[in-house]
Structure formats: structure tokens, C-alpha cells
């Protein structure tokens, strides 16, 4: 399922330990750190809300190299948490050491990295547990963390000094991994701050699948725009009103015509977009997209995850002569509401309202409408279709036949086995998950109805930090409870229309074997018009993924897997033919 709980996103903000706890880590090098050569104060905003502030200082020493120190504050679920880090570099800007302290007053975590003869060794320490990783080659490497803006200051210095190739390896100690990276520029650009426009220099950084724009002004880094995570970092002292990059408008896609619509659901205004073929004669066959879990917008994007999956599929369908409606979930994008309080039943009601809105469009053939459900949407779409026999067909992408609690248990066990965890560790983790599931199934109301003490009685292992993250999730307790107690096979057995099922062998969020379980449930009551594809090298976000299965998605800059597009458009065109 598209729950951010299961996505490893670069720069995911983690809880931070107070600066006072780390005097040994941060002061050992300060006295001999050398000459101050740069300093800055950055704020990081997402959707106009400040989530992080950082003050950094950069020192130069004629023998030791460079030392970057920073401190700041990050906000998670309304809780302010402090941050402290240091990174050391040699005279050629190669990273030599890194320490980041993370935690709350009741919990702590230390992330560290150290360069040595055999490469860079990395460690994440949480309480008494420790995980390690390493990168063997340090000849062309940069250390980057989206939470530390100062790292990008050093990156640009290394690029300008030609101490780092334009194609390099980025070390990510928090994730115990490395990513391929490439930087281009500088190119001239313009940006706004308040009512004024300023000239600047732009660097484009491709970090795995993450796209980041770095903006310089008067020789200083003043902006870091992370397109994937939807964040904007800016120099507070120089541009207190923030910055906005001035770019050319996105050209319209050939073969499509789009217009915005709104519709009502539960006294909320839900926003969406109709995509029509640019040619042909209406009324058109049409599809309704029902998206995955979490704060997913009409295009299939979420904070920290830029995929454009639904947008690409909608345009491919339009080029094949089929219209569509995509909509922002309640509380997401341009839609009203609060997703964190939305139940599964609320989202089903929103999908019903979207279907009615699609049928009301004059360009749409009301008798030739399909549903496309992805991830959580593949749970919800059969519920809608089972109660409406006028639906022409249904497409289930990365769907499951087992309840969500069984899928999350599979996720935990699968990931731990990939990490080489012992059988004892796996058993202990699953036992904790079982306590969590038991609590959710037996709960009532929402997260706000439970105190930390209440939660810890049900889950004795639960730390205050974990409880804060749990209750601050974008997924409501009622949403979890309804998914954990529902039987997805019930609606599947009632489907009488054609069904297309596509799952991926490289999906680490839904087992590929769920495709056959879905088919079996549908065929149980005699519906034989079921087409199943289990595609090799297809991941949960519908990309071709030739690497080992991973939740670090590295192919999002590539289009949706062409195999999926061919299968979907071919099936939909065939099933939408007038009869």
C-alpha cells in the first residue's frame, strides 16, 4: 500500500536529540577548526508551512581541510525537536567524518560516518541497537542529507573547484546507502522573493530519482528546491519572504485536453481534473482513478514522493481515445477536508461522488466507465463496482486480496529478511506488530482519544517518539481499523464485469502472489473475464525496476513502465468498444 510508513525517502526527517547531549561530538574539532569562511540561516517550508530551521557555519583549515557545523530545529507532528551535526572534509572536499544526533528527551539516535582505507563506514545507533553499512569507493563521493542544507554549500564549492566530477556518488548515512548523482549548471535563472525579482545561478541535481534545484545569488547558496519532497529551503537572512523559482509554464500534452472540476462529498469540495482525447467524437469511454493510501494527489504524488503515475496513465489513455477523472483526496492538493481524520468509509464515499461527477460530464459515455484502483485504491474500487453493475470494467494495480494487517506483517518480515535479520529479531518484530494490530482492531474512535499511557499499556515496547509518530500519521485510527477488519474478497466475489489485474514481482509493498488470490476470489462465483499479469521488474510505483527489490525508488525519473501502459490501454480500448 502507498503508506509513507513503508517508504524510505531520502532526507526523511527523523527525531533529533538536544545539542547539549553531544558536547563531545561537536566540540572536539571546534577549537582548531580554522577560519570561518561561510555561515547561513536556512528555513525549510513545505506547502507554506515551516518544518525545519538550520544555522550552519563552515570553517577552513590549511592542513585539516573543512569543518561544517550546524544546529537547528525540526517540527514533527507539531513537536519541536533540536538538531546537531558536524561533517569534516579534507582539502579536496572529500568527506572524512560525519555525526548527526537525533532523538527526543526520551529517545535518541546517532548517525555517523567515517572515511578509512577501505571506504566509508556508516552506522545508525538507536538505543542499544546498531545497523551498519559501507561504501567501498571514496574517490568521487559527496555526503548529502536533505535535512542539512550546509552539505549543499560544500557540494557547490567542490564542483566549482573541480574536486568532484559532475557525475558522482552520494553517501546517505541515514539510509546506510549510496545513490548515483549528477549535477548540471550553473545556468542563469530568476527567482521571486516577496514582490521583487532577482537574478541567480541555477544548478540541477539528480540524486537517484530525486530532483533538486540549487539557487545561488551573489555567490551564495540561497535556495534548495526539492521537487520530489515538495520542500523549499531559503536563506532567511537574505530573503526572509522566501523564494520562488521563475520557470516556463509546463507545455500542454499533445493528444489531451484537460479542465478542472470540483464536486461535493460529505459537505466537502473535492477537486479533480478531467482529461479528454484531443480528437475523436464524444461521448468518450472514461476511467476513474482511485489512488493509493496516504496524502496522494490526483497525479499519484505525495509529500516526498513525486511519481506522476496517474497523470502519465491518464494521458496514455487519452491518446488511445479514453477520457478520465483524477482527483485530489480529501485534505490533499486543492480538495477540502482533513485526511488525518478520514476513515476508509469516507474515502469510499469520495470515490462514489467522483464517479457521479464523471458521469455528469457531457463528454462522457455513462455506459462505458471503468475504474482504476492502485494500491489502496485496488481495495476500494471493487466495493464501488460490486454495487454498480453499469461499470464497464475494473483495473486493479498493485492490489491485494488479503486484509491490510496481513499485508503489513508480510512487509515487515520481508524487509527484515532482506536486511539479514536473525530469526529472533524477526519473531520479536512480528510479535510487536501483532500487538499493534490487536490494539487497532479492538480500538474505537481516533488517535486523539488515546494517551501515550493508553497506547503503552497495549504496546509495552512503544517509545514516546514512536507514539508521537504513530498518532501524528496521515492515516486515521478508524482508517486502519476498517482496513484491518474488512474482508477484501467479499466485494471481489460480487464482480460481474471484466477485470484486469496487474502486479509486480519487484513490489515490496504488496506480494506479487496477491494477483492470483484476487483472480481466484473473482472467479469463485463464475466471472471468467479476468486478465492477470504479474510483470517481472515492476515495482509498487509502476516503474520498471531491474535492480534488486527495494523501497528506495531509483527509477521515478523514468516513465511508467511501457509494458503496463500497453497492457492497460489495449485492454481498455478492447473492452470499451460499443456493443
What does this entry look like structurally?
The protein starts with 22 loop residues before the first helix and ends with a helix. The protein has three domains: 4-246, no CATH class; 256-402 and 486-576, Rossmann fold (3-Layer(aba) Sandwich), CATH 3.40.50.1820; 405-484, no CATH class. The model is unreliable at 2-32 (pLDDT under 50). It is globular, with a radius of gyration of 25 Å. By secondary structure, the protein is α+β, with helices and mostly antiparallel strands. The protein is built from 13 helices and 24 strands. The strands form two sheets. It has a 16-stranded mixed β-sheet that branches. An eight-stranded mixed β-sheet has the order 17-18-20-19-21-22-23-24, sandwiched between helices.
Quick recap:
Helix content is 25%, strand content 35%.
Amino acid at each position: 500500500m502507498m503508506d509513507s510508513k513503508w517508504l524510505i525517502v531520502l532526507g526523511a526527517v527523523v527525531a533529533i536529540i538536544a545539542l547539549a547531549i553531544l558536547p563531545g561530538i561537536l566540540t572536539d574539532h571546534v577549537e582548531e577548526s580554522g577560519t570561518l569562511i561561510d555561515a547561513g540561516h536556512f528555513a525549510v517550508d513545505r506547502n507554506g508551512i515551516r518544518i525545519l530551521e538550520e544555522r550552519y557555519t563552515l570553517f577552513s583549515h590549511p592542513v585539516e581541510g573543512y569543518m561544517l557545523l550546524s544546529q537547528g530545529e525540526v517540527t514533527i507532528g507539531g513537536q519541536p525537536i533540536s538538531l546537531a551535526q558536524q561533517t569534516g572534509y579534507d582539502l579536496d572536499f572529500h568527506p572524512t567524518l560525519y555525526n548527526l544526533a537525533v532523538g527526543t528527551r526520551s529517545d535518541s539516535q546517532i548517525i555517523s560516518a567515517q572515511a578509512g582505507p577501505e571506504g566509508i563506514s556508516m552506522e545508525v545507533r538507536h538505543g542499544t541497537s546498531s545497523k551498519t553499512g559501507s561504501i567501498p569507493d571514496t574517490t568521487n563521493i559527496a555526503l548529502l542529507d536533505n535535512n542539512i542544507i550546509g552539505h549543499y554549500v560544500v557540494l557547490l564549492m567542490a564542483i566549482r573547484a573541480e574536486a568532484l566530477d559532475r557525475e558522482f556518488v552520494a553517501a546517505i548515512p541515514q539510509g546506510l546507502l549510496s545513490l548515483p548523482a549528477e549535477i548540471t549548471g550553473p545556468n542563469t535563472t530568476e527567482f521571486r522573493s516577496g514582490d521583487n525579482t532577482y537574478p541567480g545561478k541555477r544548478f540541477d541535481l539528480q540524486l537517484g530519482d530525486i530532483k533538486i534545484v540549487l539557487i545561488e545569488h551573489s555567490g551564495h547558496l540561497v535556495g534548495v528546491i526539492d521537487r520530489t519532497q515538495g520542500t523549499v529551503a531559503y536563506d532567511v537572512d537574505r530573503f526572509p519572504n522566501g523564494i520562488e523559482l521563475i520557470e516556463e509554464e509546463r507545455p500542454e500534452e499533445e493528444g489531451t485536453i484537460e479542465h478542472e472540476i470540483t464536486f461535493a462529498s460529505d459537505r466537502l469540495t473535492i477537486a479533480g481534473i478531467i482529461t479528454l482525447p484531443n480528437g475523436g467524437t464524444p461521448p468518450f469511454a472514461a476511467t476513474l482513478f482511485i489512488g493509493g493510501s496516504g496524502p496522494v494527489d490526483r497525479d499519484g504524488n505525495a509529500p516526498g514522493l513525486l511519481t506522476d503515475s496517474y497523470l502519465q496513465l491518464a494521458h496514455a489513455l487519452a491518446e488511445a481515445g479514453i477520457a478520465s477523472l483524477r482527483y485530489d483526496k480529501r485534505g490533499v492538493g486543492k480538495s477540502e477536508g482533513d485526511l488525518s481524520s478520514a476513515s476508509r468509509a469516507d474515502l469510499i464515499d469520495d470515490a462514489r461522488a467522483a464517479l457521479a461527477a464523471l458521469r455528469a460530464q457531457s463528454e462522457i459515455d455513462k455506459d462505458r466507465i471503468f475504474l482504476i484502483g492502485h494500491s489502496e485504491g485496488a481495495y476500494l474500487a471493487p466495493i464501488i463496482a460490486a454495487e454498480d453493475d453499469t461499470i464497464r470494467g475494473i483495473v486493479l494495480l498493485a492490489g491485494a486480496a488479503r486484509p491490510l494487517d496481513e499485508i503489513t506483517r508480510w512487509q515487515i518480515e520481508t524487509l527484515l529478511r532482506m536486511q539479514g535479520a536473525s530469526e529472533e529479531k524477526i519473531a520479536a518484530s512480528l510479535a510487536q506488530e501483532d500487538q499493534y494490530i490487536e490494539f487497532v482492531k479492538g480500538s474505537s474512535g481516533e488517535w486523539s482519544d488515546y494517551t501515550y499511557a493508553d497506547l503503552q499499556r497495549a504496546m509495552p515496547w512503544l517509545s514516546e517518539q514512536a507514539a508521537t509518530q504513530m498518532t501524528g500519521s496521515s492515516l486515521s485510527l478508524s482508517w486502519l481499523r476498517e482496513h484491518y477488519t474488512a474482508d477484501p474478497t467479499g466485494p471481489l466475489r460480487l464482480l460481474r464485469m471484466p477485470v484486469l489485474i496487474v502486479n509486480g514481482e519487484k513490489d515490496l509493498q504488496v506480494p506479487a502472489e496477491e494477483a492470483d488470490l484476487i483472480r481466484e476470489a473473482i472467479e469463485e462465483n463464475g466471472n471468467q473475464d479476468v486478465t492477470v499479469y504479474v510483470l517481472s521488474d515492476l515495482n509498487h510505483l509502476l516503474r520498471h525496476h531491474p535492480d534488486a527489490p527495494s523501497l528506495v525508488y531509483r527509477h521515478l525519473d523514468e516513465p511508467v513502465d511501457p509494458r503496463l501502459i500497453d497492457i492497460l490501454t489495449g485492454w481498455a480500448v478492447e473492452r470499451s468498444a460499443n456493443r
